[in-house]
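Sample intake sheet
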Amino acid sequence: MKKIIGLLVLAFDLSGCVDGDRYNFSGSSENWDVFYVVDVSDGTNQEKSGTIKYVGEGNAPEMIDYEIEASGSGSEGTGITLNEGTADTGRSSCEGCAVIQEDEEIEVEITWNGQTENLLLTTDN
């Protein structure tokens, strides 16, 4: 009985973590596909994560630099290694911050091997 009550309490606690909105942003360019997920809770908390995938001709570069800008906040990565043509932007979160809105456009800049491409990410409505 204790185990069942413990599982119910855990399930209740975890259900609070997923209460909110999830926005799936994506965009493509000649050489890249970018997918970005924003989970918003309580209107002032968010968690962001994403992937950057090489879709250009030839072999994928070994490393990239990227910058992501949205809602006055952003993230960046320098010297990020691609694994099978894909890079992970990692997870970041903030509490009490200005959160990304569903109708926003997110700007992404990717630099590799002396080349740069810019993309706009929008939600998959």
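Comment: The first helix runs from residue 2 to 17. The chain has one domain: 21-123.
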